[in-house]
Amino acid sequence: MKLIDKKYAVYLLDDDNFDFPTLDMMKDDLVAIGGDFHPQRLLNAYENGIFPWYIDDYNYIHWFSPQKRMVLRPDKMKISKSLKKSIQNRGFVIKSNENFEAVIRACSDIKRKHENSTWISEEFIQAYTNLHKLDIAFSIECYLDEELVGGLYGLLIGNVFCGESMFAKVTDASKVAFYHLCQQAQENGIELIDCQVYNDHLASLGAYEISRVDYFKILKKSF
Asked: Helices 100-109 and 122-133 meet at what angle, rounded to 10?
């Protein structure tokens, strides 16, 4: 691992080991570039509060650890009256881990506001599908009339669920999937859902920001 930007403390990862910068080596949100999607490298990253965000034009993976981390306590999810009606009356059927690859591909295909393209490239799809086969990555799926209309995926690291992305093809489908994630989290002793970075959608569901230092304290206690 080589320091390539002293001002922002960005490191170039080695090809022959899976080390990442430690907390005291980090300054900005971007903490490293390079490396690959070997399952052990990905697992090491998440165990150290780091996740890959995108691959640049030079085929370097960019690894982030935000200074402000968006998180949610599973028992603190905000459920609006309209969402409660959708949960109870829309006829959604929820399943887990039955069609992981379809979920991540749907997350890749969905168009989002303020984004011209997706970071979920084919390399991401294959990498996280491999993690799913190793029982590290998981999906929550929302079906309506037997069609996959919403869902989310992420990794379970200790008792922290590291959410990656979600999608909805019909109103409230992703929120219903998220609700069931929170329910399953409470049933299985998962104390925190990592939502990575701030967005209004997650804030409306009860997610909030904490410092990187506080996130690392929680993460280290989760094992």
From this structure: 160
- Write down the pLDDT at residue 89: 87
Q: Using the predicted structure, report yes or no on whether residue 117 has a pLDDT greater than 60.
A: no
- The Cα 138–Cα 44 span in angstroms is 17
Is there a contact between 20 and 45 (Cβ–Cβ < 8 Å)?
yes
Over residues 28-42, the mean pLDDT reads 98
- Cβ-based neighbour number of residue 86 at 10 Å: 20
Q: What gap in Å lies between CA 189 and CA 212, rounded to an integer? A: 23
Q: Return the structure tokens found at 120.
A: 């979920």
Tokens coding 64: 């982030």
Locate 81 and state its tokens: 């009256």
For tokens 């991401």, name the residue.
Answer: 124
> How many angstroms separate the CA atoms of 125 and 86, rounded?
30
Residue ranges with strand state E in 73-176: 93-96, 137-144, 147-157, 160-168
